[in-house]
């Protein structure tokens, strides 16, 4: 049976607001956290990922992993795995053994996650970023699984969503 998950909307007026969402999410993250990011080129997937990396205490420069597919960083208390699957097929992605990351000891962020639907863990936080202006963005969060639903409800209670 398909059930429609509730969606949560975050309005970002600028990059700083985008960082604020990352900063609100970061403290809830644990080993095995998976964020599935989607949205057009230039929506802000990498910008959000960089803000999240900073919030997790990653000291290294986080570049777009479009050409490397997967980059690993060490955060303050958790590793940070940054993926971009835009350039590869789902079959190619399957050969990379992504489960090692998804079910590993760190936080995984996947840009263009909807390109690999069959490889994503069932429990994840899907974030679709819409470009609504030059600097305005709309983040649509869809939690899959009780943990991520709880995250979203917590942020909602804290007045993070619109
Ligand atoms: P993607 O990874 O989705 O292709 P990027 O993060 O590489 O997108 O690019 C987003 C661009 O939009 C960056 O140049 C960033 O500075 C700009 N930008 C402007 N406003 C915002 C915002 N509110 N949130 C995120 N990025 C923004
Ligand atoms: Mg990107």
TrEMBL record:
Which keywords annotate this record?
ATP-binding, Cytoplasm, Magnesium, Metal-binding, Nucleotide-binding, tRNA processing
Q: Could you confirm whether the keyword RNA-binding appears in this record? A: no
- One family from Pfam that matches here is TsaE
Chief place of localization: cytoplasm
Q: Where in the cell is it found?
A: Cytoplasm
**Top-level taxon of origin:** Bacteria
Gene3D superfamilies per record: P-loop containing nucleotide triphosphate hydrolases (3.40.50.300)
The answer, when asked if Metal-binding is one of the entry's keywords, is yes
Q: Which family does it belong to?
A: Belongs to the TsaE family.
Annotated protein name in UniProt:
tRNA threonylcarbamoyladenosine biosynthesis protein TsaE
> What gene does the UniProt entry assign to this protein?
tsaE
């Amino acid at each position: 049976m398909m059930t429609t998950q509730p969606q949560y909307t975050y309005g970002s007026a600028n990059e700083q607001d985008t960082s604020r969402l990352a900063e609100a999410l970061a403290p809830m993250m644990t080993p095995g956290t998976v964020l599935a990011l989607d949205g057009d080129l230039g929506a802000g997937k990498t910008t959000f990922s960089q803000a999240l990396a900073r919030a997790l205490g990653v000291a290294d420069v986080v570049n777009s992993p479009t050409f490397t597919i997967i980059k690993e960083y060490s955060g303050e208390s958790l590793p940070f795995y940054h993926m971009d699957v835009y350039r590869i097929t789902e079959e190619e992605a399957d050969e990379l053994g992504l489960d090692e990351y998804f079910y590993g000891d760190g936080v995984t962020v996947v840009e263009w996650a909807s390109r690999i639907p069959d490889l994503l863990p069932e429990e994840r936080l899907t974030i679709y970023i819409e470009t609504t202006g030059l600097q305005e963005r709309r983040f649509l969060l869809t939690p899959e699984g009780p943990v991520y639903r709880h995250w979203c409800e917590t942020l909602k209670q804290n007045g993070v969503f619109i």
